[in-house]
Amino acid sequence: MGRRGRRHRGTSNRNQIEKSREDVQKPLKSDASNFQKPIWSNLDFEDYYKEQRIVKAQEWDLFMEILRKPLPAAFRVNSNGQFCDDLRLKLENDFMKSLQAEAVESGELEAIKPLPWYPNNLAWHSNFSRKEIRKNQTLERFHEFLKLETEVGNMTRQESVSMVPPLFLDVHPDHFILDMCAAPGSKTFQLLEIIHESSEPGSLPKGMVVANDVDYKRSNLFIHQTKRTCTTNLMVTNNEGQHFPNCNTKGTLSKEASEINHHTSNHLLFDRVLCDVPCSGDGTLRKAPDIWRRWNSGSGNGLHSLQVVLAMRGLSLLKVGGRMIYSTCSMNPIEDEAVVAEILRRCGCSVELVDVSDRLPELIRRPGLKKWKVHDRGGWYRSYKEVPKSQRDGVLKSMFPSGKSDKDSTGGGNIYEEITSLSSDESAEEVCDLPLERCMRILPHDQNTGGFFIAVLHKVSPLPEFQEKINQRRNFSTRKTINSYEAVSDTVVTKPEEGVEGVVLEVAVSEKENTSEEGIVELAKKLDDMGGKREVPLIQGKWKGLYPVVFLRDETVIKGIKSFYGIKDELFPLYGHLVTRNSDISSHGNVKRIYYVSKAVKDILELNFAVGKPLKISSVGLQMFEKQSSKECEANCCSFRITSEGLPVILPYMTKQILYATMADFKNLLQHKSIKFLDFIHPQIGEKAEELALGSCVMVLVDDTQLGSEPVKVNSSTIAIGCWKGKASLTVMVTTLACHQLIQRLSDRRSKELENAEN
Ligand SMILES: C[S@@+](CC[C@H](N)C(=O)[O-])C[C@H]1O[C@@H](n2cnc3c(N)ncnc32)[C@H](O)[C@@H]1O
């Protein structure tokens, strides 16, 4: 095959991939002129899945019936939330009972119930769809509860099947985890919760999550939500997953930096990888009925090769001994079993499909298929031999159960290459000889959910050398990466330094936060002390709302914060853990927002700087301090207030600017938002408030016995809010919504205590 022909096929295939990707990701236009009523059926879909035999003939009608019903709502109580137990009890003891009448009326057995396979009754399924919950008046109280707790970050609405993959990943708090296709981030939140679960309040987990997604707009939505997780252990990147950088140090790091990088040898490697790939999404038909209209077998075919390369890249970034989940919300074997079979063939003995049949026994799932066929416009094919040459652009060998890709897996060929001579037995229906029965397919009618597919992979040894070489070749052809990224986003590209092949961009911020270019360049000079690498905007000569992350090294600012809040370096180091972005610096050179990064994130950030910034970081760490200018502020006042999301992390290490208050004064402040010192219910608390330095402070709720015996040890149940101490009054610095939610939770606790006392 000549080069021209091959290139042509490659391009056409690429176009098809792009098209499928667009089809999958493009939100439907919501304006009235484009609105089309869902059709709830698609004969091609029915023919396809009947032929693939994903369900037995006798189950077919039920399968289709359930697919046409709206998806019941599901939600999770966030396990790190301060009110986790309170919320779980409220669901178990209050809503489960009070909603029951409503359920019986609509013919259901239970209104809400915990998902039996999810640990600790933390995930719930409601027999009402989200629409019903919104519309029904009796359900209003429940709806308000869900809305409020979701808004403040105590709960997450998430499709139940989408909660499954993190549970099979076997995550430990010290794990470095890569979530390759993370947006909108529901599984990332779960992963973060797991790594935080066993850490003490204020002590940060050793592990971290890199949440990557090529689509920076989708990532930005997700970044906005990460505030509520109060985590310092997250980095969000916008690399193409298949080109995710090695961050290979090639022995160029100093001894100190190499030690930092100890856990990653000379590559950035991960203990766990979640590869939740872009897919045709027909498992979400119940939630997104517009898919009925759009569905065709070409979508799955067009995504297959992207899914293979994403999974292969994930495996190459995985440590030996590590675990990767490959998952899709599609029921299509071309996107599911065929991809898993292809990666197993490419990896040889270095990767195993893990049998997890003994895990989560209450989760109903079906074994992966060993037989399937491939369909395209030309019809059905049982083996690659049957595919006419004219159709081989879109139908690949790797889509068939046998794969027949020996040549591909040596690294010499590529998956678009043609086979012209095949033996006669290849025309028979193929059966895959790999243990694909270990994969899991969740079908909608099994437990009233969406459809999902999961495979658990274990890396036993390094991948075959040629596979690693293929990955390295892909990673970095840097220019290509930049160009393909430009297609989907506005990017600031860091000017490549001598000897460093193309390095890319950083942080996305909203347009309104834009600062003048001169100001930023000026500030970059001041703040970027990481080897003097200054960021230069290349694309269209504009910053386009994307700004670099820089370590904050300003001694005056850091010392000011430390002394004002009484933070001891040996207990909670600030230096080297504080970062800011150029967008967070005013044109006068003043830092506006400061983020805190855990040791794990700091290490990766430093590694990224050291190897020329191949990671396109769009968000990192937790916003902990915010500039707060006030006329009342005196010379010794610190102009950085502690943010609500930063407070739980820093509180255990603060020795100054803390006011302890009992319930009456605490609630009073939440209700009135601002209280004069003279108006405190307990005058001694008012006096203490007056003694605080002007500026940011924290009010901590204590019980009557603790008052007067300060300092009180902070633990995971400590309730505190950020405040501002003015000349005559104390003011809360949290939103009205957060005040409202806190009052609600405190009242519920109080009623529970009274109830317990009565019994
Ligand atoms: C199924 S969604 C992921 C859902 C997500 N894991 C969650 O639980 O919320 C697939 C994601 O893959 C992203 N994506 C598509 N192509 C990609 C690529 N080449 N590299 C990385 N991400 C990609 C899409 O932007 C999309 O957000």
TrEMBL record:
The active site is at residue 329. Residues 1-11 have a biased composition (Basic residues). S-adenosyl-L-methionine binds at residues 181-187, 213, 276. Residues 16-29 have a biased composition (Basic and acidic residues). Residues 63-460 form the SAM-dependent MTase RsmB/NOP-type domain. InterPro entries: MeTrfase_RsmB-F_NOP2_cat (IPR049560), MeTrfase_RsmB-F_NOP2_dom (IPR001678), Pre-PUA_NSUN2 (IPR057285), PUA_NSUN2 (IPR057286), RCMT (IPR023267), RCMT_NCL1 (IPR023270), RsmB/NOL1/NOP2-like_CS (IPR018314), SAM-dependent_MTases_sf (IPR029063). It holds the Pfam family PUA_NSUN2. Keywords: Methyltransferase, Nucleus, RNA-binding, S-adenosyl-L-methionine, Transferase, tRNA processing, tRNA-binding. It is found in: Nucleus. Residues 1-30, 395-422 are annotated as: Disordered. Belongs to the class I-like SAM-binding methyltransferase superfamily. RsmB/NOP family. This is tRNA (Cytosine(34)-C(5))-methyltransferase-like. The lineage of its organism: Eukaryota, Viridiplantae, Streptophyta, Embryophyta, Tracheophyta.
